[in-house]
Design goal:
InterPro entries: Bact_response_regulator, CheY-like_superfamily, Sig_transdc_resp-reg_receiver. This protein has helices at about 15-30, 40-45, 65-75, 90-100, 110-125; strands at about 10, 30-35, 55, 80-85, 105. It is an alpha/beta fold. It has one domain (about 15-115): Rossmann fold (3-Layer(aba) Sandwich), CATH 3.40.50.
């Protein structure tokens, strides 16, 4: 048994079906999945428990994914975020990528595409 901690992937999406399918995808890769139904729920987590990576929806009630990112960055909590959205917008994409997001994917995205973004984010590669 290696002592390395299993990377935790936070999944933030108000759609239960999406949360469940992303969680099983993440677990199939050998990572731990922590799912949240809103950005508000995630922000209640103590900062020292920050995930290795986050997969977040952009369109969510109360706080959008990009607002969640802005709040995390403002409080010095930086980890790679993979955004998914059913309504891709260049403006939002440019803003979240400039703020350090790792990927900005349309919904639905293929499992392969999500896995590629996740593996890159965890390996610490800058995305192109």
């Amino acid at each position: 048994m290696s002592m390395a901690k299993t990377p935790v992937i936070a999944i933030v999406d108000d759609d239960e079906g999406v949360r469940a399918s992303l969680a099983s995808l993440v677990r199939s890769l050998g990572y731990e999945a922590h799912a949240y139904k809103s950005g508000v729920d995630f922000l209640q987590e103590p900062p020292q428990d920050d995930p290795a990576c986050m997969i977040a929806d952009v369109q969510m009630p109360i706080i959008t994914g990009d607002e969640l990112q802005a709040r995390l960055v403002a409080s010095g909590r930086r980890f790679p975020i993979i955004f998914m959205t059913a309504f891709p917008s260049d403006t939002v994409r440019q803003r979240v990528m400039a703020a350090g997001a790792h990927c900005y994917l349309g919904k639905p995205s293929s499992g392969d595409e999500i896995i590629r973004c996740l593996e890159e984010a965890l390996a610490g590669h800058a995305s192109h």
